[in-house]
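Q: what does this look like with beta-D-glucopyranose bound?
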Amino acid sequence: METFALPKGFLLGTATSSLQIEGGDRNNTWYRWVQTGHIKDGTTSFVAADHWNRVAEDIALMQQLHLQTYRMSLEWSRIEPEQGQFDNDALQHYRKEIEMLLAAGIRPLVTLHYFTNPLWAEDAGGWLNPEAADWFERYTTHVVENLGDLVSDWCPINAPNVCLAQGYLVGGWPPNDVRLTRYLRAARTMIEGHIRAYRKIHQVRAAAGYQDTAVGTALHLRPFDPKHGTGHERRAAAVYDRLFHEVFVSGLCEGRLLQPLGSGYPLGEGRYCDFFGVNYYTRDIVNCADSPAGPLGRREVRDGARTNDVGWEIYPEGLYRVCRKYWDRYHIPVFITENGTADAADHFRSDFIYEHLWQVHQLIEDGVDVQRYYHWSLLDGFEWLEGLSAKFGLVAVDPSTLERTVRTSGWFYGDIARSGEVTSKMLRQYFG
Ligand code: BGC
């Protein structure tokens, strides 16, 4: 293992989402969904890590780990529990949380939509309803008018590709309505929601005199690699890439609809991302040869791969590949908005961190302007269909006592955040 340093000014932090850590909210799609028998371990998001009641404690942990930035999400259903009615207490709770972060020297990056819809929106069709873009713009406006003096950095919608693929293509997530036409329709509305939020955030903050606004994506990107390299598999991989990545990348970044989403620039051609945010975890191998699953084959894990607790391949080079590809296309600053692994025993998370930050270092050496890295996640939380059993936290959370314990990998990450480098002393200390 080699030592390396990240450039001055590079920011290291962690990312979380409201539903996964806050607990308490009863007004969103997942509150309903966890009661329908879909969660593998039968747990719920009702308490999660109880972050809503432990904000001060959790910010103190971030400080202990020397983190410089924090990507958090706001729960739309708390802020707008009924259509058009805003809850000032919820907004003030978030305002206080952000003030505490700033007082701790931690720069917030705020996500406005993270996989959950308020029930009133879901019951009106969710993102299949073209009005969802209006609802989302109104919510965004309200939030930015109230928090825009504290927050310059925004991600309107987290991983629209994951949210919609799980809801409309693969299934298993709400609304679990598997139809390609629905996936495409909801994708058009989410892209419109992003573009309108992008413009609104800039407009509201500019009118208040702020010039440092940065609005970007947080897209989940994963290479799709053909197993045998046949023409059939390469074509299948290209279909996955287009449906899962390309239609969103060009929609969110350029305002351009690619087939089969549509064509042209319905909201005008532009650059609707000030940074390119990447959520990176793993890759998929596309296997058409041994698969009865139709022309697109099957997505699987590479034979013999190193995997994490939930069976995902650990593939650090993939982070390099996805960042490089879109840097070469757009030349806008890259933020790693999520990267992490499930490792309850903390056996390989330190290696994971080292290997992925090494790729970040390589990207920077090769001229890619990577500016931030957010480790997923600060805390063990509610991992969607996996429930509470998948442990992604730098900090372990005991589900019964809610007690927090920093894992060894958390201290390792904290040391990197403090010094901006991996030194030989750290290699000896953490890798023996
Ligand atoms: C999601 C996170 C989730 C993580 C691990 C990501 O794709 O954005 O919410 O916790 O995967 O499951």
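The mean pLDDT is 97. Residues 17, 20, 159, 162, 220, 279, 281, 338, 376, 383, 392 surround beta-D-glucopyranose (CB under 6 Å).
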